[in-house]
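Quick log. Single chain, no ligands specified.
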Amino acid sequence: MAKLKLTEQQQAAVENRGGSLLVSAAAGSGKTKVLVERLFRYVTEDHCHIDDFLIITYTKAAAAELRSKIAAELSKRMAETPEDRHLRSQLLRVYQADIKTVDAFCTALLRENTHLLAQEGERYTLTPDFRVLDENDTKLLRQRVLTRVLERFYEELDEGGALLADTLGAGRDDSALEDLVLETYEKLQSHADPEHWLAENRTIWENRSGDFDETPYAAELLAVIRRKGFHHMEALRRAGQSTVGGDLYKGYGEKFLRASRSFAPLAAAQNWEAARVSLDGLEFLRLTTPKGMTEDPEVVRLKGLWENAKTAAKKLAPMLAVSDTEAMEDLQTMAPAMTALLKLTADFSDAYRTEKLRMNCADFSDQEHLALRLLVERDGAPTELGRQVAGRYREILVDEYQDTNEVQNAIFRAVSREGKNLFTVGDVKQSIYRFRLADPTIFLDKYRRFTPAENAAEGEDRKILLSKNFRSRGEILDAANFVFSNILSAEMGEMEYGEDESLHFGAEYYPPRKDCETEFHLISAHQKSAANERPVKRLLAEARFTAQHIRQLLDEGYPVTGEDGTLRPCRPEDIVILMRSPGSRSAAFAQALAERDVPCSFEESGDFYQTPEIAVTLALLEIVDNPRQDVPLIAVLRSPVFGFTPDRLAEIRSRDREGDFYDALLTDGGEDVQAFLTTLTGLRDAAADMNVCRLLWHIYNTLHLPGIFGAMDEGGVRQENLVALTRHAERFESSGYRGLFAFITQLRRLIDAGQAPAVKTAGGNGGVQMMSIHKSKGLEFPIVFLCDLEHAFSRQDFDTPVLVHPALGLGPLCIDLKRKIRYPTMARLALEEKLRRENLAEEQRILYVAMTRPKEKLILVDALYGAEKRLQKLTAAAACPVMPEVVAEGKCFGDWILLPLLCRPEAAPLRDMAGVMAGGLYTGDTAPWQVFIHDGDDFGWAPGAAVSDTEKDAGETLFDPALLTFRYPYQRETTLPAKLTATQLKGRALDQEIAEDAYHTPYIRPLVQPKFRREKKGLTPAERGTATHLVLQYLDLQNLDVPGQVEKLRLEAKLTAEQAAAVDVPALRRFLESPLAEEMRQAETAAREYRFTVLMPARDYDPAAAEEDSILLQGVVDCWFETPEGITVVDFKTDFVQTEEDVAQHAELYRGQLAAYSLALERVLEKAVIRKALYFLQAGKTVEIS
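-> predicted structure:
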């Protein structure tokens, strides 16, 4: 491949001086080359030193790679001019230069200047040896601090706090409130001054009054309404005008134009009331279709646009049904809860900061905020240290600037003399880390404000665009430009995609070819129906098609450009399958590739800690630390490492039944046990002198764990898991922890909390790669398959009861406790719309990253259900460019690609399938696409599957027709429970009716009061009943002093004071005076709280069950006693009954339960039950059950 010289744009980026410079570098435009060349221009022409510069990257790997490139370039230049002493001196400086991540820069700054952070009145302060918390440590510490903060919150509960706890923070426990606080706190960490943000928003909610039109929420929602109004006004106008002079003008065109005019007031609404009135003025007259044109493609398209406009109006109606007065009332209702949430978050922030200072540690966001505090005063002026640091560097060079957040940007400005010597390079179209709090608007703001470098005055902020792409063939660039010039706009995407933003071909070194057109494959998958009972699932069809196409490319030897610039046949390693979120889909694709004998590799993060090799190793570490732990000790003995059988373990246990299992081992004299104890002692001795990482390797070598687990299925993966555990241990100790006990304790705590550290392992090496689009950023591949285009855009961010936005503040739900309903406030609707569009803009950038990864071939695969209807809807709205609001309605990447693609001449097969005309055909001169349609059911058979020649010739599967009428003979048995409790038999028919036929209201689940708020109200009826039953269990039937007996039970701690106070003493006294109690006193034998487990014939439960079926019946009989005639069963009931009718009805409910008790006792006691009785304590009635 020929050496690339600097282009005119690159040369300008290298040489430009005199002010802050922003370089907007498109994908593959050589931005790293420009950064290195700019640095060396300073070194060679201005005789600067490499360590006179601060170079910031966003990952450690990128920093190491950049340092390596600088060192390589330095070596090359020294070879060309060996006599240059200045260059030679840079060899020592290059490894001392500040080429680092933002975190690393901040950490170094803090360690040098922690003494400046001390504040008067604070008990603790950071010292230079502070520890940086990793993500898992941070989660645990935050949880611990938040628990303490919530305890204080409940102790000092005010009206606002109570409202917060009862509504937005309500649940079975504190988790909902904890999540609210943590999410609010975390979303503020990219803000330069989170404390100020909390205080400012608290003031706003404390003074929530005035007119709704004055709120930022009204401004945001009115902007949404105007956008939608303008969109449908224009869409209907264009559609109406397209019918002028044709057969459809009278029945369609006139009505479209009238409807368009009715949308004009909505598109111009300046206040809330005007918008509400405008919605009422929308007109949708009845369309009349000329005879014989019902199926006409243009009619279908126009009907689609008409229905879209009507649907949009219906969606706006609920929001505009709320008056401005009602909107403010909802906000005022939730204001106390929002104020409480902001105060609680501030309290947590203070407590968390204090705890970190006490522990002498800091988390990742602390480093940035503390560094900013060292560099900048509260009023924004640089500190003395800030001026010193800024004076240390000739220039600040920031790579991947599009991923900056507000705090980082403030730091860069502080160390660059207010931005005067700041060189930033990035591509905002590749900013895809908003979920990590990156803020692309920082880059966009400068991109819009800065003057083009050629027109900038001295000292003026300037920008240079690098638009030439040196990575990809022209066909790839044309495809990306075609899609994004039609779907990206300032209204939907935060920026325009014009000539300056387009990718321009610069890879002149590629040999000319005719077979690199972008391919789009639509796979029409089918859902189950009467005509197709076993359709091929969408994922399977997509995976098998992709595998088939890859196999075809490999077999045909599809040429790609080799390292020497010549063409060679492609290899599996040249191909990548990109997906938005691979997850479990990777397994389906891996299986499909395996069917085609195509090797593949992918990263998977499964249940790492549940794998046998890791579970056994962790158990080993636990007993090395402390062998007196029965569960891990027996797990290790039973494992393949030592191989003790269950019988042998039982024999060892019998040696010492009282002590722990380790005592039993010490007592046993077997050779196998002695060998194990010797090994364990050796490992425990070694652990005293080794760190955890070394100890793990020592265990592996001593016990041959890699060999043992490597001999199992997927042995290579298991061995890699063992190595991955050592890497985790190394990271653990590098963060400041020491010792085996600390490692085990922290790891177990995280696993138990469901926050186990992520440890990724390779799913294979070599072959076709599968990865997420995020993982592919910065990489390039000769051939890219972009799959899973139907992956729906996530709405996970909107599941929380309170939304958070840096500019708009908080957007809560409104919860009405009296009516038990919840609905969004106008603040929430505004935030939801704002966040939704920001997320969609991020998804557009993710698609851009995916489409700019290939070097020579891009293949798009879109498998979808209901393809015909979907294409009808999309074709009706298709245009070049696509209207912004149509883009905003997109649900997945497939929608965004199809909307402009359907206008291309090559997409005729798609339009034919839809039976709809596009609004207009694309007439540009970009490289042609290849468009294909496949039937998903064509991929039902795996290649190489056992299919007879007859089946292949016939093209269909032979089957036995009797299979269609087959009925599983034991279907009824599948509905029988394996185990049943006697209590479940109570009112069985009624329970079944309720379960099957009851209407479920749309109300929220009843909000349960936390226990701390219920203490003064006493026990619930169920809890009082439990207390009475407890007394009945211990009640002395000879002693009529019931209060004395209850007090005795309380003193013996068998009852709590609360339970004792709740016991129904009069009811118990009535029982002791009853004939039933007298019978029990005279009985020969009696038992209370009698537990039983018995295997019963299933026919006793269900007469239609098979004779051989059984059910395990469990229960507890309140009381039975024996008389000469037989057994009497008694069940005590605390039901609220008053009349004889109540008693009779409730008695009937318990008939099944008593029958079960009787059957069970007859089998267990081998005596006849002659009598069954219910005693209702409240009514003092005994009811005989026949």
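The two ends are 97 Å apart (CA to CA).
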